[in-house]
Amino acid sequence: MNIKKIAIGLGGTDLGRSGIGRYVRSVLPGLLDELRGRGIELVAIGTQAELDAYRNDLRGVTQFRLADVFESPVASAFYYLAFVGRTAKRLGANVLLLPAANRRGPLWSGIPTVGVVHDFAQGHIAYKYDPARMFYARHVLTSILRSQTRLIAVSRATKADVEHGIGVAADVRVVPAGVDIARFAPVSGGVAEQLRTDYGLEREYILYLSRLELPAKNHLRLLKAFQRSRLGETHDLVIAGEDCGGAAAIRREIGALGLENVKLLGYIPDERVPALVGAADVVTMMGLREGFGLPVLEALASGRPVVASRTGAIPEVAGSLGVLCDPLNVGAISDALTRAVEDDEYRGHVERNARLYASRWQWRSTSRALADQCVAVGAVA
Question: With 70 as the cut, is the pLDDT of residue 25 above it?
């Protein structure tokens, strides 16, 4: 088939405010260039809020606006389950691209589909979500993923999780995410000083940038490990990210542990993230199981030491440049934090090698591979 048009569904991408949202924002420019170079049109399907969130990335792109009722997560999931494929086909698309297929997708679409899966951690974390969402993830979502023409996993670990989780032979390809090394780079003293002033960060800090979601993001063990490490004598622990139900429990734990050197910054606008990462003494990513670990790569591009979980995709993303540990072991987390702060040999290794390593992970390569996969599934339809 001669591919003329590809539809992209923006549902489940968090209006650009999460790791998945940043993925979409990062791949769209290169994807558009790739498709236009091949004479293929892109059409975006989303609510007004979703289309507005990616406005700067969708210039010149035909947009199909969904009714505002589909801004509700439940209504959005239902729309994608039953109608998004029909919408894409009616718009003349030859292929439907789903950049958040681990959240939204159709049981039947009528045209070939390519779904990007960012993680499938519900197979490893028993209570990652509330009961309703766990039912959807374990039963409805598995059926959705089985029905896609091709699945794109962002890491080898996620590919293995998907293949195990959906229980059938599936066409799953690995297309890693990337990092913008122009945005994420070592920061100047002036930039760091301004950021510290803006956020009231008077001391060196260890940064955990993640949505506040329990138990998946593991904040409570990190707090215990920080207390145990005694690093609070010299460092603050800075927790930044949007509240996804975990903020109250995190605040209670901070109080129960008597920690006075933990700062909760809330959601950080995307344009402030590079400076916050670049000014950190150490960046940590302590989720129980990550499908890729974008903050790890962003920290390495910024030349910052990394402490992260020895689970999921983190080992394949961090390579030899992260201090990895068991995320369930408070003592191991504490020791890893201490090493990242105090081990001069490790910090020198990061300073010499991290940025070059990160430069091998390019968003342009991700965009090109996504375009290739969409064209490939459409060509054999």
Answer: yes
